[in-house]
Amino acid sequence: MKKKLSSSVWLGLWVALLAVNVQAVESPAYRRISVQDYRDKMKAGWIGQIAGVSWGAPTEFKYRSKIMPEDVMPKWLPGMINDAFAQDDLYVEMTFLRTMEQYGLDCSIRQAGIDFANSGYGLWCANAAGRNNLRKGIAPPDSSHPKFNKCPNDIDYQIEADYSGLIAPGLPNVAITLGEKFGRLMNYGDGMYAGQLMGAMYAEAFFEKDIVKIIEAGLKAIPAESQHAEMVRDLLKWSKECPTWEECWQRCEEKYRKNPDYQKASNGDIDCKINGAYVLLGLLYGKGDLDQTIKISCRGGQDSDCNPSSSAGVLFTTLGASNLPERFTKELKEQPLFSHTAYNIQGLLDVCEKLARQAIVKEGGRIEKDAKGEEFFVIPVKPVKPSKLELSWAPGPIAGSMFTEEELTKITFLESRVLQKAVNTFAPGWTIAHCGSEMNPGIHESELGRRNVLVTHPSDKDTPCVLSRKVDIPAGKKTMLKVVVGHHSAGDWELVVRADMRELLRKPVGPNTSTNYWLDVAVDLSEYQGKSILLELYNQPTGWSNEAGYWEKISLETK
Fold first, then answer.
1. d(CA 213, CA 194)
2. For the chain, give me the number of helices (H) and strands (E)?
3. For the chain, does the N or the C end have fewer beta carbons within 10 angstroms?
4. pLDDT at position 4 over 80
5. Which residues lie across from 369 on neighbouring strands?
């Protein structure tokens, strides 16, 4: 005969079951990865960036709003893997790693701004605008605010955010937070979201090989209402509808390049949405093939070395360095330092592991050892919390953030002082004014095949950089001003010579006037014999693309 359970027993069983269910709901899920496997995948992420930028570098901005023909795509040679040590696609983000190495994962955004302000490499676009603001005393987050920065949606943080996922395996919220700290130095709105997307994709690539799932994980990390998120959703949809990547590329061109609604606060060729689309294009149509992924992201055009660097970085991470084909690894030199950094390959891996350990513990994870002493990262799975929505064309109020006097003393790279010191060495007696910080102004040991070259850059598209000097022209003798000037391989500018505000010469300095990038100019000053005059040399901008002036010689010769 069966016994009936009392109501009190039933109640006890129900409470016990409820407690188990509540505990199951409250207990977070975890992902595990050995530290050895983490390092292997993280190293592959760096190699992917290196391979992508090295392979695409010869094509950068040579194809704008048109597909690069397949026969133009350079052939990969294993030795090309060492061509990236001087690429800004890599060394800029290492500045951020250095700040965290020195001040910890929780370093302040203001310290990040000070360190970025003190960087000595050449910069362009949003990076240059943000750094200029920092050097003027405008502290983050205002250094990237559209009121002060006219390039908020440029690609810059997108190409520098790889580090944020490589030190945050399975931790997209860490990549989001790092975007709010380092991406805020130069980008705003979609420009920052582009980097957070990249960081979150890298974070997922440690545990997932399915490219669509990796992209979907990245999409969760940015505001759904943003145009950048709309672009990602479009690419996921269009890639199912378009049988070829060329057809999908055309849809990207029509909507994100030609439609003015998607060009607001855009800098055209380097807008994050169109270049970000080409990153995804390579990942989606490359179908896991390393070469095809790089080629498609490159052949999309625009910033065609940065884009394959990003897509390759994510894809290579899914595989791990030990599984990469030898053509990408066998000739890699691991000892040279990356330009402007304290890191070689080994140092880079070590600092990333150090910061990953901090990130995992901070997020509630732990580091365990098995019976053999092998270490494992145990990483909690948490809901993703994107940044709030911002629109670069309708920005919110500024924060009113300025560096204090004490903080300004820590910004040692103050343009006027440093540049004037360089000019004093290069051309004693001359003074420099209105020189911007783009393209790394100052004395360069070598440029364009010449040695000891002074590099200048206009402060903005309407204001020339000016070299000036008060000169006494001797009577009874012929005095000539002689200068040797050069131009960037992808740019030009105008040399203007003025005496007492009167224009004596205006000469284009570009491929049509120079030989092997250089031009010799002589100006006769004999009409000013016996007079004291103010002599001015203008590095005059033209189309605001690589407007640097290269000076090998400035001299006054009297006979």
1. 17
2. 18, 13
3. N
4. no
5. 375
- State yes or no: pLDDT of 280 exceeds 90: yes
Task: Give the separation between CA 179 and CA 159, rounded to whole angstroms.
Answer: 12
Question: Do the Cβ atoms of 235 and 245 come closer than 8 Å?
Answer: no
For residue 325, count other CB atoms closer than 10 A to its CB: 11
Identify the H or E element spanning 30.
strand 30-34
Task: Return the pLDDT at 269.
Answer: 86
Torsion of CA 359, 360, 364, 365, to 10 degrees: -170
- Helices marked H in 120-183: 125-135, 156-160, 162-166, 172-181
What stretches of 397-528 adopt beta strand conformation (E)? 431-433, 442-447, 450-456, 465-472, 479-487, 493-499, 502-509, 518-524
How far is CA 373 from each of CA 34, 36, 377, rounded to the nearest angstrom?
11, 12, 13
The residue-averaged pLDDT of 50-72 equals: 95
Q: Is 165 helix (H, G, I), strand (E, B) or coil?
A: helix
Indicate the pLDDT class of residue 220, thresholds 50, 70 and 90: very high
Phi, psi values for residue 536, rounded to 5°:
-130, 140
Radius of gyration of the chain (CA): 27
For 491-502, letters b (16+ CB in 10 Å) and e give bbbbbbbbbeee
Which tokens in the block code for residue 111? 């310290």
Q: Has residue 24 got a pLDDT over 80?
A: no
**Distance separating alpha carbons of residues 298 and 535, to the nearest angstrom:** 47
Q: In angstroms, how far is CA 56 from the centroid of its own chain?
A: 16
Average pLDDT of the chain, as a whole number: 92
Question: How confident is the model at residue 266, as a pLDDT?
Answer: 84
Q: Which domains does the chain have, with CATH numbers?
A: 33-380 (1.10.4080.10), 415-558 (2.60.120.260)
Percent of residues, the chain, with pLDDT higher than 90: 82
134 three-class SS? helix
Mention every residue, 6+ apart, whose C-beta is less than 8 A from residue 92: 119, 121, 123, 127, 159, 160
Determine the Cα–Cα distance for residues 212 and 287; give it in Å rounded to an integer: 10
Q: Which residues pair with 210 in a beta bridge?
A: none
Q: Order the strands of the 431-433 sheet from edge to edge.
A: 431-433, 465-472, 532-540, 493-499, 502-509
Check residue 44 and report its DSSP letter: H
What is the pLDDT averaged over residues 397-404?
A: 96
The pLDDT of 359-388, averaged and rounded, is 97
Tell me the Ramachandran region of residue 108: left when phi exceeds 0, alpha when psi lies from -120 to 50, beta otherwise.
beta
| Interval 166-196: pLDDT, tens | 999 999 999 999 999 999 999 999 999 999 9
Specify which residues 482 forms β-bridges with: 522, 555
Per DSSP, the three-state class of 208 is coil
- Residues 314, 261, 459, 417: is their CA dihedral positive or negative? negative
321 C-beta neighbours (distance < 10 Å), count: 21
Contact 199, 168 (CB under 8 A): yes
- Confidence (pTM): 0.77
As a residue count, the chain comes to 559
Question: What distance in Å separates the CA atoms of residue 19 and residue 23, rounded to the nearest whole number?
Answer: 6
Determine the 3-state secondary structure of 101 from DSSP. helix
Q: Which of 547, 538, 49 is nearest to 316 (CA)?
A: 49
